[in-house]
């Protein structure tokens, strides 16, 4: 299994990934090399897809959905790590893991994951009218979280300093492309397709309400006590201690939690600890320009 291969890696054995472009979007080279296979992926009508920009609540949403599908049975949701339960379709770590292979070997109904912007989504998902859950997180917190994820994860390029990463993120020169294009593209698509568009900040503020939305969307009729159980088991503190969701089972040669844990803070407003006054002013100006023609709005703090 992929997990065993990841465990066997020695410290320092894995080099940082290289990156390339697909239709103007920066992606890991290993993903670009099998792009035709990814683009031609055959979705099935009963597939459920969880789509996000990286570090926008992906694992959280995956665990909510998995618990829901198992009627709140925590033991069933601990049958395997989250990345084995829900394949990441465009992920390729050579000699370790290929999301496409995982997905193709999985029996239906499948729950799958992607970080792809809507324009790079394999067309079969929309053609087959698959249900898609999209989660968006405010850009500032998303940037901070993504920066720390780069620092600890060799499956991403070296982020450089915070200041350097700030510039890259602002320019959309990071893996999976511009945050602006990503959140706006999926927002524009939500009324034409079966897309439930959620906000990370809403999930933090009223998790039960948002989890109820997910249940209704996927047709999961759960009793109130089961919903409460799912709310509890998907809190940040519980998931941070759960090896099936916190990515600690992956070799430190791939993810080094001593640099920064995969589940770091999960907070709204942590960006204030990183943005300088000048950076904040610059970002606000850039945000205003890029978000001028959309009805999409975000909360940057509570």
Automatic annotation (TrEMBL):
One CC-aspect GO term: cytoplasm
UniProt keywords, alphabetically: Cytoplasm, Transferase
Main location: cytoplasm
Protein's cellular compartments: Cytoplasm
InterPro entries, per database record: P-loop_NTPase, Sulfotransferase_dom
Root EC class: transferase
Coiled-coil regions listed in the entry: none
SUPFAM superfamilies tied to this protein: P-loop containing nucleoside triphosphate hydrolases (SSF52540)
Pfam families with a match to the protein in the record: Sulfotransfer_1
Every Sulfotransferase domain range: 45-294
Enzyme Commission (EC) number: 2.8.2.-
MF annotations from Gene Ontology: sulfotransferase activity
Entry similarity comment: Belongs to the sulfotransferase 1 family.
The protein, known as: Sulfotransferase
Protein's organism: Orycteropus afer afer
Organism phylogeny: Eukaryota, Metazoa, Chordata, Craniata, Vertebrata
